[in-house]
């Protein structure tokens, strides 16, 4: 399993567009991926509604866990999606 922790800098947090891009990338990866606010309960990252339901705002730390083939590159790609949304 590969874990990445990032701080969200986008003033509006993770809203519909980045949540959709993130969830689509998770589904396409074929890996098992969860996302959580740091210290919170993880949710399936392939669900747009689950990701948006976390209510991630600017300044929140987000933990992404990836399990499966190419977990390192998938984690890097997913982190890039959230950082690019900023």
From TrEMBL:
GO molecular function: transferase activity
Localization of this protein: Cytoplasm
Keyword Lipoprotein applies: no
GO CC, any one term: cytoplasm
Pfam families xrefs: PTS-HPr
Key words of the record: Cytoplasm, Phosphotransferase system, Transferase
Domain HPr: 1-86
GO terms classed as biological process: phosphoenolpyruvate-dependent sugar phosphotransferase system
Principal subcellular localization: cytoplasm
UniProt-listed InterPro entries: HPr, HPr-like, HPr-like_sf, PTS_HPr_His_P_site
SUPFAM superfamilies attached to this UniProt entry: HPr-like
Highest rank taxon of the organism: Bacteria
Keyword Cytoplasm: yes
NCBIfam families in alphabetical order: PTS_HPr_family
Function as written in the Swiss-Prot or TrEMBL entry: General (non sugar-specific) component of the phosphoenolpyruvate-dependent sugar phosphotransferase system (sugar PTS). This major carbohydrate active-transport system catalyzes the phosphorylation of incoming sugar substrates concomitantly with their translocation across the cell membrane. The phosphoryl group from phosphoenolpyruvate (PEP) is transferred to the phosphoryl carrier protein HPr by enzyme I. Phospho-HPr then transfers it to the PTS EIIA domain.
Name of the protein in question: Phosphocarrier protein HPr
Organism annotation: Bifidobacterium ramosum
Lineage: Bacteria, Bacillati, Actinomycetota, Actinomycetes, Bifidobacteriales
């Amino acid at each position: 399993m590969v874990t990445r922790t990032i701080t969200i800098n986008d003033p509006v947090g993770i809203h519909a567009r980045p949540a959709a891009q993130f969830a689509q990338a998770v589904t396409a990866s074929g890996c098992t991926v969860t996302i959580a606010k740091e210290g919170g309960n993880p949710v399936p990252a392939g669900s747009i509604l689950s990701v948006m339901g976390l209510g991630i705002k600017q300044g929140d730390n987000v933990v992404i866990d990836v399990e499966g083939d190419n977990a390192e590159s998938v984690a890097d790609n997913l982190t890039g999606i959230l950082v690019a949304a900023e």
